[in-house]
């Protein structure tokens, strides 16, 4: 089975890249230096700096590998370049109203840049799948852990294209 695309916004990709560069170019070399120093202090079996350093190095290497793979497989999509701004697609900021008249504003982003508390939901989430392709005034039904809800799309916005 083929993996689904790893869509990501330019800002999301930039954040992954910054984290990768920080880990690879700054934190990892400092940690390797600490481990080398600790290894030179003799008995490694009870050397906390050495043991902790090796454990932390494995965590950093694992994260670097994961970030590298995600960036390699990423497809950067600039929401500002969306030609059809009347419909909900990746990168759209959508104002939704449920049947209880509760308003919710969500932005459809890549899986690596979600932040539900800030309204940034994965484009593959149940709500995003339900509203993708919808226009203002459309009502969509979505099944959530709390039960089935009807959501009306009341506004759709995309970032403006920045020249330069």
Automatic annotation (TrEMBL):
<dbReference type="InterPro" id="IPR022691">
    <property type="entry name" value="Tscrpt_elong_fac_GreA/B_N"/>
</dbReference>
<dbReference type="GO" id="GO:0006354">
    <property type="term" value="P:DNA-templated transcription elongation"/>
</dbReference>
<keyword id="KW-0805">Transcription regulation</keyword>
<keyword id="KW-0251">Elongation factor</keyword>
<dbReference type="InterPro" id="IPR036953">
    <property type="entry name" value="GreA/GreB_C_sf"/>
</dbReference>
<feature type="domain" description="Transcription elongation factor GreA/GreB N-terminal">
    <location>
        <begin position="6"/>
        <end position="76"/>
    </location>
</feature>
<protein>
    <recommendedName>
        <fullName>Transcription elongation factor GreB</fullName>
    </recommendedName>
</protein>
<dbReference type="InterPro" id="IPR006358">
    <property type="entry name" value="Tscrpt_elong_fac_GreB"/>
</dbReference>
<dbReference type="InterPro" id="IPR028624">
    <property type="entry name" value="Tscrpt_elong_fac_GreA/B"/>
</dbReference>
<dbReference type="Pfam" id="PF03449">
    <property type="entry name" value="GreA_GreB_N"/>
</dbReference>
<comment type="similarity">
    <text>Belongs to the GreA/GreB family. GreB subfamily.</text>
</comment>
<comment type="function">
    <text>Necessary for efficient RNA polymerase transcription elongation past template-encoded arresting sites. The arresting sites in DNA have the property of trapping a certain fraction of elongating RNA polymerases that pass through, resulting in locked ternary complexes. Cleavage of the nascent transcript by cleavage factors such as GreA or GreB allows the resumption of elongation from the new 3'terminus. GreB releases sequences of up to 9 nucleotides in length.</text>
</comment>
<dbReference type="GO" id="GO:0070063">
    <property type="term" value="F:RNA polymerase binding"/>
</dbReference>
<dbReference type="InterPro" id="IPR001437">
    <property type="entry name" value="Tscrpt_elong_fac_GreA/B_C"/>
</dbReference>
<dbReference type="GO" id="GO:0032784">
    <property type="term" value="P:regulation of DNA-templated transcription elongation"/>
</dbReference>
<keyword id="KW-0648">Protein biosynthesis</keyword>
<keyword id="KW-0238">DNA-binding</keyword>
<dbReference type="GO" id="GO:0003746">
    <property type="term" value="F:translation elongation factor activity"/>
</dbReference>
<dbReference type="InterPro" id="IPR023459">
    <property type="entry name" value="Tscrpt_elong_fac_GreA/B_fam"/>
</dbReference>
<dbReference type="InterPro" id="IPR036805">
    <property type="entry name" value="Tscrpt_elong_fac_GreA/B_N_sf"/>
</dbReference>
<feature type="domain" description="Transcription elongation factor GreA/GreB C-terminal">
    <location>
        <begin position="86"/>
        <end position="158"/>
    </location>
</feature>
<keyword id="KW-0804">Transcription</keyword>
<dbReference type="Pfam" id="PF01272">
    <property type="entry name" value="GreA_GreB"/>
</dbReference>
<dbReference type="GO" id="GO:0003677">
    <property type="term" value="F:DNA binding"/>
</dbReference>
């Amino acid at each position: 089975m083929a993996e689904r695309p790893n869509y990501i916004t330019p800002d999301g990709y930039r954040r992954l890249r910054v984290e990768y560069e920080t880990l690879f170019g700054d934190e990892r070399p400092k940690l390797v230096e600490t481990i080398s120093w600790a290894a030179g202090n003799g008995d490694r079996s009870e050397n906390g700096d050495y043991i902790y350093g090796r454990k932390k190095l494995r965590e950093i290497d694992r994260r670097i590998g994961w970030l590298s793979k995600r960036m390699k497989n990423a497809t950067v999509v600039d929401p500002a370049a969306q030609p059809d701004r009347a419909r909900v697609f990746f990168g759209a900021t959508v104002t939704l109203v449920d049947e209880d008249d509760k308003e919710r504003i969500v932005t459809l982003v890549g899986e690596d840049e979600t932040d539900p508390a800030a309204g940034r939901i994965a484009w593959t989430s149940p709500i995003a799948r339900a509203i993708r392709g919808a226009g203002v005034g459309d009502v969509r039904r979505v099944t959530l852990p709390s039960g089935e809800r009807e959501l009306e799309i009341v506004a759709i916005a995309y970032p403006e294209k920045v020249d330069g």
